[in-house]
Amino acid sequence: MNQILCIALALVVGLLSSRVMKLLKLPNVTGYLISGTIFGPYVLGQFIGWNTTPGSATDINAISWISQIALGFIAFSIGSSFKLSVLKKIGKRVVMITIFEALGGALFVGLFLILLKLIINDIPIEIIMTLAAIACATAPAATLMVIRQYKADGPLVRTLLPVVAFDDAVALIAFSVLFTMAKAMAKGSSPNVIDLIVAPLASIFGSLILGGLLGFLVSLSFKLFMSRANRMSMSIAAILICVGVSLLPFNKWIGFDLSISGLLSCMMVGAFVVNLNKDADRVFERMEFFTPPIYILFFVISGANLNLTVFASENAVVIISIAAVYLVSRALGKRTGAFTSAKITKCEPQIQKYLGFTLIPQAGVAIGLASTATQTLVSEGNELILNGKTEIGNNLVTYGGMILAVVLISTLVYEIVGPLITKVALTKAGEINLELNK
Q1: Under CATH, which architecture does the 3-428 domain have?
Q2: Cβ neighbours of residue 101 under 8 Å, at least 6 residues apart?
Q3: Which end of the chain is more exposed for a tag (fewer CB within 10 A), N or C?
């Protein structure tokens, strides 16, 4: 086996799993994650040559670039939601609800995990900070699937759709800040203005400037290229540039821990393209036909990266405890934030009562952020080990594995339970016509 054959196998396995999930009436993403775990290097993959040995022909970490590219496309799609004409229509109400429910999830996860740390002292504060940021994200795909399947409509649905699109943007920003801080702390850097304030702000603004510049250039190219295929190609080139630049070792060149976020820059490209071009929707529609194989590979590879050996390690109890608290506290935070903001903005009663329940699903962006954190920590940890800083390096590698394990476990639960809770909430809100869906 070589990397190309492993990628082909991952795609085929992912597609076949979607058929099984259809029979079980579960989301496709659940099948992708499970099949990736089963055929990954920690289960059946070891018998077909897929492994985790650095530098080998079938090292799963060597194809992490697929995940990075997939995240770029996801962020680009999120950016398309920031159309100014749409923002003006939805008004301040949706913006306030989005901020409250997204940060509510982060706040509750952070607080509950800190309380858990008082009981289990082995939980690193760096992991708590990273998981709190990831908790902001929701799963627009899972929510949209339920709405389309049951032809739901009403005030709750019309409020829900923009909220689930915008809260992923809040998650990207929160992650950029908190993960940068957490990484500096994990490396043993002493708290200083550069590490805690300058570096995160420089990373965020640098990412936004890069994305805005590329988005502007792509929009200019639309005057040169008229076909949707060529315009899509230019957009893809911009996404790849953002992802490529995000992988450059800026910290080695400038003396402090600066990193460009491929997620933020790709989101900015999408926002510029959708606002500067009247017919940009055609490009995004064309992109939807191009990206499905990339998304399948992303989820399958994410599942394959789930190191099952952590459940046999001394950290097993800690990981399971963190996952359980994360599942409950994030749901409570989303529910509290949505209810409070809907009450303040005087939304309809069904929005106040049921919106929080429809925000429970979590998948793509959350896994993407966890994968980014894991790959960054493992890569930098291995580099520190090679440079003789074994203890700090091992800590980074361990933290990365724990973060991905917690998020993947949570995602599997959320993707099974979340759509069902969303359906029940929409039904109780009177926005699913049971007669039409018999």
Answers
A1: Up-down Bundle (1.20)
A2: 163, 167, 333, 334, 337, 338, 341, 355, 356, 359
A3: C
